[in-house]
Amino acid sequence: MGKGGGKGGESISDEEWERFLREAGAGSSGAPEEPSARARMVARRLREESSRPEGWRTHQPVRRRRGKGWYAAGLLAAVGLLVVALAPGRVAGWFGGGSDGESAPLAVESKRPDQPPPTQSAAELPTLKQPFRGSPAARWGDGTAGIGMPAARATGWMSKEQVAQTLDRTRDFLAASSLDRGVLGGERPRKAVALINPHQQDVQDYLATAFRAPSRKNDPLLLFSRFQKTKVRLVGDVVKTRGRVTYREGERGAVEVTTDVTYVYPVVRAAAGSDEVARTIVRREVVMSWDDPAKVVIEPGTFSLVSYTVDTTNGGCDTFTGYLTPEFGAERAATGSGDGPEVDPYDRSKSMDARMREAGDAGCGTATRS
Q: Disulfide check for 240: which of 23, 137, 196, 349 has CB 3.0–4.6 Å away?
């Protein structure tokens, strides 16, 4: 994860930020097409209640697995004792690899899963030392390591080498927008913005407004993950991720890249001595078009946004402050239940389009787990 560069975002005035955007947009406009983008957002608020029923999609697979694993477990235990006797150092390495002492990390996602991940015990609450405890994210990758990247091949107007560079820049954008420590602490995402086509006027209008006057229409959280550091702080140095990047030939021979990534952010209150860990989960889909400068008004090394969608759990619902606003135990107890459908924030078996259709125009939903 990046550490953020230049001046801290909170020290940059609105006038300076808008001047930065205007200067980024200056340049030639000789190409015939100007792209536009569309944005969508669904907000999910986490509400945990001891009396809340279990979600059938998340809990049943675990019960089935428990019911038929005893003989295999006993056999593996016997084999394990033999391995410990023969190679104790190797076994120690197996159990020391994860920050939460969980089982081995999952391989990166190469295709859409056909079911949600199994549910851990509700008693496994997160701690400062084990912020992903009790969560499927304990086995996910750290930062960009959890994002599956495809092999490069010649596509559209680009050669294989150009596609490889485009994929690297795509990953850079994901890191700069959703993993950069400075941006997560509330700074302006200058590195990420620098990768967006400055001639895409509707997006530039959105960026010019989102940080100065965030609203439902102009919400920076559609593209960027940010917390207000005076209220919450991240736990540790790791953000867990799971997702993948795909691409195809788009309009006018462009290389259209789709990123679908779930980010898990463990946080505590900013007050000194706070130790109650909550998790904010953000699934964000960004579709970007790496256009041919001969056909589209674009600066080299930047992309045009096609669409951007976000689904957030425990990040605030109908609160447009420009920051993710997680709730903790006492706040959740005082908050009424959402009127939207239940959702499993770790379920990646459904596309974002399907998730959006399920949500419809409903208000705040209820997460089946955190």
A: 137
